[in-house]
Structure formats: structure tokens, C-alpha cells
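Propose amino acids for all 415 sites.
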């Protein structure tokens, strides 16, 4: 099978690695990928615009296409690929609104009757400002930009100062996009985890879970990042996690169906456990980054086969039994010292061959035949072992498998 994977980060590196491990795959092309992904069956190819990407995909005649990054789903790449009869995995544009519009997602949560934080929706800055000015005197608030913001559209406001800062940033987002739409949610407190399902028509399968460390470090008030590490499976709730998550996913897919929108692809449920109740904070419509880097190493079933069944969009996922290793995986991200600001350094990445860890590259570039850092999250290392503690020991003992000057990483992943 010849397979295309769209995206360029550590998540896509892990997807390509797992697809390449299958006997069914012959060639995998990452669009655009990154120079750390290319290896054996996997190569990278560039493109200019999404239309150019689609043209390239059509001319290469892939058996199917896996979309990693949400931006392409929001642009409607799946609708275009379906109309061109290219088998592909991911939701159509109308269904990808679950991630790209937080107000749409909340409406679906309410219709699906799943537990979620109480919220109000504002379409003008003045109405938002008036409401929050009063409310912040009584309680903490969460302000959310309605649209895709690459993790930069959520503001936890604990006092008037943080509220004013959030209002300024939301105004800037509104000015940049020419439209204003913001949700205000009650602020919940609890442990978060990410749970995944694969949806293929009426066939919905649980695809394990992970805990993501979103803050740069463990200090209070440390900045939010794309994720500094994960472990899988999440052990926040115990034996009933699979049933609970499948129940929520079924209700969401049904609520979408009632609006005439069929959901296909990955359903990523962002959960928070508050006492006995598992709340849904958000839904994403693709695999998590860096959750995928700790989930896929635990998957015993052939990913190329799973994806091939899903890409037909005929409910054939039901024919595949998903099997998981009983082991834990711990994934530690190494980032540029300036992360999460946009600034970056360019230094050589030193590697040592090491059978105990997997390295998934993200922010890298090739210069003079050597891999250099290229800003943001540079790569992550994953180790798999019988317990979370032993997986953690293994990954931290082997951090030299890939390293660079001034690297930053969290020392508490899996604690
Ligand atoms: P979201 O993009 O909606 O998942 O929000 C990003 C992050 O903001 C979540 O992972 C939480 O850490 C935090 N967050 C979102 N909604 C709430 C809420 N209602 N209460 C507390 N924290 C929240
Ligand atoms: N790790 C969170 C995300 O992928 O959105």
C-alpha cells in the first residue's frame, strides 16, 4: 500500500513510523513532514497551497490519505478528496466544526447530554466585557475564542488583572479575523486526560487514552504549550474508562447524525475528572500531539490495516479487533530554550543509536546533511515498559539518544 500522511510534527512522525512497521505498507509520503521523519519506506514531499497538495495527492495515486493536522480538515480537504474519489481518513468540513467552532461543539455536547462546563456565548466585546466584569468578582472564569487558535485561544481568569489581559488578547483575535465570538465557561478543577475513539460510520472503537503535560514546567502559572510530554494509558479513572468514553462518543456521533452530519475519523475527547463526574472540555477531530507518540507504541494491531478499513468509509472498522499492549509508554518532549515564544536557536542535534527509546522528530531542519533544531518542540523520546514507573525510568535514563545544547524538557512526565 502507498499511503500519504498530511502534517509535519511529532504526531505525524509517530503515525509514519507505525504505518512503516506494517507489512502491508510499501511507501509512505509525509506532506510536508520534516527531515527527521524520512527513513526507509518514508519520504517527505513539499507543497505550496492546499489545492497544490490535493493535486499532488491525486497524481501520486495513494491507496489512502491520513490527515494529521486540524487546519486541513477545517479547510475542507476531506470533502475535496472524497469528491475526487481518493480514500481518506478524517471528518468532512461540516463535521470538523466540532473542533474548529467551540460554540458548535458546546451545542452538540448539550444535545448529546454529556457533562460539560456551563457556558454563555458572546458575539460582541461590549457584552462580554459587561458580563465578565461582574462575574469575575464572584468566581474564576474560562474565556474561549470560538475558532481554531492552535491552543492560544483559552484564558483562565482568576482575577480582574487576568481578565483584562484576556479581553485584550481576545480583542486582538477578533480584530485579526474581522469577527468576534467568545465563550465564557465555569472554571472546573480536576485531573485532565485525553481519550480517543475511531469512528467509521456506525462502527466506533475506543483507541486508548493518554495524559498530556500542557504546561512548560511544573511551577504554578507556567505557560501553556502544545504539550511537553505524555504517558499512556491515562490512569485517571479506572476500569470503566473505555465504556464511559465509548458512551460519550456514541452520543456525540448520534447528535451530529441528528443534524444530518456524518462523523468519520478520529474523535479526541478532552476530559476532566471532577469528583465522580467525567466532564468533556473539548473535542478534537484528529489524533493528539504528543498523545499519539505514547499511544501508537502500545498498539499491537496493524495501523495500516485499521486505516485502510476506515478510509473506505463503509463501516468496515468493525471487522478489525484492536489489541493493545498491557505496557505503559512515557513520552518526553525536548524543546527549544525559547519555547513557547516564537524565538528559536539553530544548533546541531546529537544522536546515539539506542534500542530502548523511540525518537519522534518535529521542529528540525537539515543543513549540510546534519539535523539541526528549528524551533518549538524539537522532538520527543518514548520508552515502553511494564509499569509507568519503569517506562519513566527507561526514558529518563536514555535522554542522550537525542540531545542538543540548551534543550529544555520536563523532569516529571509520568510522575
Ligand atoms: P480546550 O481547548 O477547550 O481544551 O482548553 C484548553 C485547556 O484549558 C484545557 O486542557 C484545560 O486545561 C483548560 N480548560 C478548558 N476549559 C476549562 C474549564 N471549563 N475549566 C477549567 N479549565 C479549562
Ligand atoms: N495535545 C493536545 C492536542 O493535540 O490538541
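Proposal:
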Amino acid at each position: 500500500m502507498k499511503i500519504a500522511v498530511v502534517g509535519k510534527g511529532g504526531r505525524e512522525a509517530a503515525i509514519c513510523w507505525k504505518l512503516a512497521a506494517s507489512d502491508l505498507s510499501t511507501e509512505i509520503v509525509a506532506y510536508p513532514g520534516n527531515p527527521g521523519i524520512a527513513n526507509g519506506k518514508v519520504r517527505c514531499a513539499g507543497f505550496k497551497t492546499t489545492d497544490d497538495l490535493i493535486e499532488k495527492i491525486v497524481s501520486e495515486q495513494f491507496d489512502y490519505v491520513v490527515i494529521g493536522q486540524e487546519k486541513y480538515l477545517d479547510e475542507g480537504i476531506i470533502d475535496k478528496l472524497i469528491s475526487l474519489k481518493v480514500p481518506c481518513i478524517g471528518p468532512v468540513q461540516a463535521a470538523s466544526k466540532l473542533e474548529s467552532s467551540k460554540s458548535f461543539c458546546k451545542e452538540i455536547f448539550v444535545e448529546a447530554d454529556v457533562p460539560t462546563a456551563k457556558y454563555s456565548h458572546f458575539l460582541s466585546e461590549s457584552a462580554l466585557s459587561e458580563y465578565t466584569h461582574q462575574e469575575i468578582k464572584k468566581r474564576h472564569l474560562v474565556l474561549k475564542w470560538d475558532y481554531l487558535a492552535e491552543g492560544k485561544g483559552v484564558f483562565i481568569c482568576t482575577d480582574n488583572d487576568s481578565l483584562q489581559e484576556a479581553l485584550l488578547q481576545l480583542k486582538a483575535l477578533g480584530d485579526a479575523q474581522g469577527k468576534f465570538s467568545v465563550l465564557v465557561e465555569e472554571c472546573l478543577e480536576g485531573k485532565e486526560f485525553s481519550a480517543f475513539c475511531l469512528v467509521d460510520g456506525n462502527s466506533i472503537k475506543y483507541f486508548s487514552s493518554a495524559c498530556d503535560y500542557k504546561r512548560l514546567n511544573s511551577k504554578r502559572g507556567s505557560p501553556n504549550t502544545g504539550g511537553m510530554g505524555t504517558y499512556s494509558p491515562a490512569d485517571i479513572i479506572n476500569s470503566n474508562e473505555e465504556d464511559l468514553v465509548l458512551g460519550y462518543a456514541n452520543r456525540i456521533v448520534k447528535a451530529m447524525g441528528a443534524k444530518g452530519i456524518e462523523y468519520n475519523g478520529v474523535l479526541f475527547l478532552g476530559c476532566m475528572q471532577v469528583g465522580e463526574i467525567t466532564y468533556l472540555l473539548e473535542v478534537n477531530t484528529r489524533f493528539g500531539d504528543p498523545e499519539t507518540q505514547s499511544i501508537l507504541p502500545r498498539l499491537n494491531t496493524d495501523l495500516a490495516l485499521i486505516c485502510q478499513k476506515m478510509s473506505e468509509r463503509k463501516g468496515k472498522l468493525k471487522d478489525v479487533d484492536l489489541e493493545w499492549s498491557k505496557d505503559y509508554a512515557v513520552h518526553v518532549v525536548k524543546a527549544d530554550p525559547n519555547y513557547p515564544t516564537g524565538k528559536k536557536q539553530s544548533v546541531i542535534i546529537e544522536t546515539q543509536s539506542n534500542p530502548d527509546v523511540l525518537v519522534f522528530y518535529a521542529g528540525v531542519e537539515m543543513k549540510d546533511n546534519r539535523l539541526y533544531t528549528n524551533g518549538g518542540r524539537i522532538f520527543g523520546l518514548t520508552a515502553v515498559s511494564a509499569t509507568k514507573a519503569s517506562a519513566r525510568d527507561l526514558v529518563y535514563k536514555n535522554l542522550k539518544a537525542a540531545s542538543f545544547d540548551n534543550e529544555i524538557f520536563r523532569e516529571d512526565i509520568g510522575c
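The two ends are 40 Å apart (CA to CA). The chain has four domains: 2-89, 118-186, 190-319, 328-403.
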